[in-house]
Amino acid sequence: MKRLLEVRDLQVRFDTPRGVVRANNGVNLALGNGDSLGIMGESGCGKTVLILSLMRLQQPGVIFGGSIRFDGREITRLTQKEMQAVRGKGIALIPQNHSTALNPAYTIGEQFGETLGRRQGKTGLWQMLRAGTPGAGTRDYEDLRQVLSELGFDDEAVLRRLLASYPNELSGGMGQRVLIAMALLLEPKLVIADEPTTALDRATRAETLELLGRLSVNSTLMVVSHEMETLAGICNRVAVMYGGRIVESGVTGRVFSDPRHPYTRILLQSQHLTRGKPVSSAAVALDMVSFPPGCPFHPFCPEAMPACSQEAPEETVFDSGSVACHLYTGSGTCSK
Amino acid sequence: MKLTGLFKRNPWLFTGIIMITFFMLAALFSPWLAPHDPWQYQQPFLEPSWQHLLGTNDVGQDIFSELLTAGRVSLGVGFTAALIAAVTGVAIGILAGFRRGILDEILMGATDVVLVIPILPLVVLVSVYLGPGLLNTSLLIGFTMWPPVARVIRSRVLNLRQAGFVESARALGAGDWWIMSRHVLPNVLPLVLAKFVLTLAGAMLIEASISFLGLGDPSAKSWGMMLHYVFTRGGFIREMWWWYLPPGMAIALVILALNLVNLGFEEKADPRLKRVLER
Amino acid sequence: MEIHSHPQATMAVKTGRYMLVLLLIITLNFLIPRLMPGDPLLNIIGEEAYYGAGGALETLREGLGLNQPFVLQYFSYLGGVFTGDWGYSYLYMKPVLTAVMGHLGWSLVLVLPAVILAAIAGAFTGSIAAWRRKTGTDTALTGSLLLAYSMPHYWLAMLALFVFAFMLGWFPLGRAVSGGLGGFAYFADVLWHMVLPLSVLTLSKAAYDHLIVRSSVVSIYGEDYILTAQSRGISGMAVLFKHGLRNALAPLVTVTAIQFGMLFSGALMVEVVFSWPGMGTLIYQAISARDYPLLQYAFFIITVCVLAANFLADLVYRWLDPRMR
């Protein structure tokens, strides 16, 4: 089966006032049609940069190495115009926070209008300026109504009110659903959700999880989150990220019940303790500017060996997963 | 080379500082750099030559020497005015932001009122009554330009208060004046520097305009006054570009330098970096 | 280029503030001649009139109410301002009100188009420069506009006059009309005279707008909604103008209002160079003749215009920013 997305040795670098940050330091992953892959990691691990790079929106960062093959094309070598065509229809993004991700100057309806216009291929300035709220009775309006009713907006009056409101007037749950709807309307090949549940409260979280779960059945999905619960509910495979690399990947059930990489173990433990609440565990926080050679995790690793501080471990591939740890490479004892 | 490194990091700032330093030095050393006495009457309306690099004006004074000396006046008035504006603005800004309450309301009300008054017409009006004089002009300009400074300083003071700065100092028993001078002031100074640069540019422009209109001090020629004479004594009509180009260019370049420095101060890092850094 | 205003203050508060400013100016105009050294009568009617009046001096003094108690004088002065009794100009031999209003119109003919054209041009170049920050395009645009902005308005005017009128002869040497024309030809003639002064004024102001917009758009590009728009796949231009510039418009309006005073002042200077019959020429001639009433009321009416511009900008700002509704 041909893979929809294949990332090989992706290197993304940022020049910051404090120094160079290698946000992605050799990322490998693959996604097939119909898969739903979760990217798990804490703040600063590079997961956001990864998904932005897939759409070449990582500026001011620079992709200076590696390859991204999406739908048979090499993303890193596309021109601006070609890349524009991929964004939206090829890959669509569901941003994290509706209150910052939607332009506060336009109504929800107008922003849906823009999305629908783009779906038809109208992307130029003049066309975008003329794209307004879809009028009742048009094909666009029907499509919009259908998608939104599947997401819970089934009442006509509610719908009209929604289209007339501004982003700052929406609640967390409503906003999230609007963002999901916008991504779906574009009919993309790959949907990427960035921390879909982080900005929500308990109740809305459950609702959103359910929606996304349904979504994952019919589309190819990539979900970035630090929450185990979210990923367990939606993704069939998960990849754990740390220090700009994927340190472990595999079938979700297996990774969560029997983690191989020491970092994964610590991460899951802390999630159990805090019941999935966001924890930026200072104990394992990495200074992305100046981390030591070798495995990025070795200063914090309870099972560190001499080899860990010298050489970054290669990925060892298993049946349906991988792990990047010296415990599993030739230079260490093999456990499990 | 360290210098090229500095240039690359902030080209606007670097260029601006070099330029302004050049002009300040030229102004400072003008008595020694000027080949002639700028007040000495020689042959009028001469074209540029080796003897008179920029020719002579309508009363026979060497324009090049005039140019150098006038720099002192223009920069001097500008500096004085900007200094007055800065000191007044800082004082008012700190008092208002620190004390809050009625004092804040009154001071900010006054600030808003003065802020909205168009500066040039006001300065023209009062100058006509006061008569020419460098000190008068400097004071006048200075006392109309403090509102933007006061505003910005007050905002910063309010931020500092929120940051708990003030609370902790108070908890340690420090008195108000102590806090204002020892804690608030040092934190506010970098901001003042940026504002000072802009105020200096504005003040020089006002002085140049006043002088052009004929309200300058004839006993102390500034660049603006030189332009006044060009315009009113037939230099412009006679197409004496060596007379009217240099003073204008001097003003333009100094103000450009100041604006470059200001732009340099304001150029912040790419805001998209916050996605990678602020975690 | 920071924005100094409280958009959050209600319109009522702002209007009150503007009224206060006007009152202050009027009071200032009242007090200055009476408090300055010398005979208040001299300070009020100006030098030419004073020294030329001869025996009529005392009659004038009586007529202007200078022998009355201070407070009474103030209120009658106040009344005079609002009824249009602004005194007499000996320079133009007509009432100050007529002289000032006649010149004001010509100034507005330059200033109003300049504000609008500059805002449009500056918004456009500022957006492009922000989008292409740190490239040659930005350096060239921002650098050259910064240079234009740094030149004294009147000097830029002199350069323009020299190159385009003296040397190339494309435009007239000054004034607003050539005389002797009527109807459509008159308008065309005025437009022809207007090109140079308007261009100079617009260029200076556009530079400032450019800097403001550039700064705004750069910071807006760090916002999440720009990323969202880009992720949809709409064109770079659409992102820049529909999302980027749109959100930078409100601050631009505020800044334009605040800078209106400076724009007007710049116009005054440009008018002098071009002999354009606006407030600039009025003030220039009044200075030479020491016609104080003219100067006072010129200051007054200019301030009124500036306040009106601020007021208008407040209204537009509220309309642009939906968060304020």
Quick summary:
Chain A is α/β, with parallel strands linked by helices and 336 residues long. Chain A has helices spanning 47-54, 80-86, 98-101, 108-119, 125-130, 139-150, 156-164, 172-185, 202-218, 228-234, 252-257, 262-273, and strands at residues 3-16, 19-32, 36-40, 62-70, 73-74, 91-94, 190-194, 220-225, 237-242, 245-251, 316-317, 322-323.
Set out the fold topology.
The complex is a heterotrimer of chains A (336), B (279) and C (325).
Chain A: E1 3-16, E2 19-32, E3 36-40, H1 47-54, E4 62-70, E5 73-74, H2 80-86, E6 91-94, H3 98-101, H4 108-119, H5 125-130, H6 139-150, H7 156-164, H8 172-185, E7 190-194, H9 202-218, E8 220-225, H10 228-234, E9 237-242, E10 245-251, H11 252-257, H12 262-273, E11 316-317, E12 322-323
Parallel strand pairs in A: 3-8, 3-9, 6-7, 7-8
Antiparallel strand pairs in A: 1-2, 1-4, 4-5, 9-10, 10-12, 11-12
Chain B: H1 2-9, H2 11-28, H3 30-33, H4 63-99, H5 101-116, H6 119-130, H7 134-142, H8 146-162, H9 165-171, H10 176-212, H11 223-232, H12 241-266, H13 274-277
Chain C: H1 11-35, H2 40-45, H3 47-53, H4 57-63, H5 70-83, E1 88-89, E2 94-95, H6 96-131, H7 136-150, H8 153-167, H9 183-220, H10 224-232, H11 236-274, H12 279-289, H13 292-320
Antiparallel strand pairs in C: 1-2
Characterization of this structure:
The complex is a heterotrimer of chains A (336), B (279) and C (325). Chain A is of the alpha/beta class and 336 residues long. Chain A is 34% helix and 23% strand. Chain A has helices at 47-54, 80-86, 98-101, 108-119, 125-130, 139-150, 156-164, 172-185, 202-218, 228-234, 252-257, 262-273, and strands at residues 3-16, 19-32, 36-40, 62-70, 73-74, 91-94, 190-194, 220-225, 237-242, 245-251, 316-317, 322-323. An 8-stranded mixed sheet of chain A has the order 6-7-8-3-9-10-12-11, sandwiched between helices. Chain A has a 4-stranded antiparallel sheet with strand order 2-1-4-5, covered by helices on one side. The longest helix of chain A is centred in the middle third of the chain and has 17 residues, at 202-218. Chain A is globular, with a radius of gyration of 21 Å. By secondary structure, chain B is mostly helical. Chain B has helices at residues 2-9, 11-28, 30-33, 63-99, 101-116, 119-130, 134-142, 146-162, 165-171, 176-212, 223-232, 241-266, 274-277. Chain C is mainly α and 325 residues long. Chain C has a single domain (97-324), classed as MetI-like (MetI-like fold), CATH 1.10.3720. A two-stranded antiparallel sheet of chain C has the order 1-2. In chain C, a hairpin with a 4-residue loop joins strand 1 (88-89) and strand 2. In chain C, helix 6 packs antiparallel against helix 11, helix 9 crosses helix 11 (236-274) and helix 10 packs across helix 11 (236-274). The longest helix of chain C has 39 residues, at 236-274. The two termini of chain C are 26 Å apart. Mean pLDDT of chain C is 85; it is low at 1-5. The chains are: A alpha/beta (336), B mainly alpha (279), C mainly alpha (325). At the B-C interface, helix 5, helix 6, helix 8, helix 10 and helix 11 of B face helix 1, helix 7, helix 8, helix 9 and helix 11 of C.
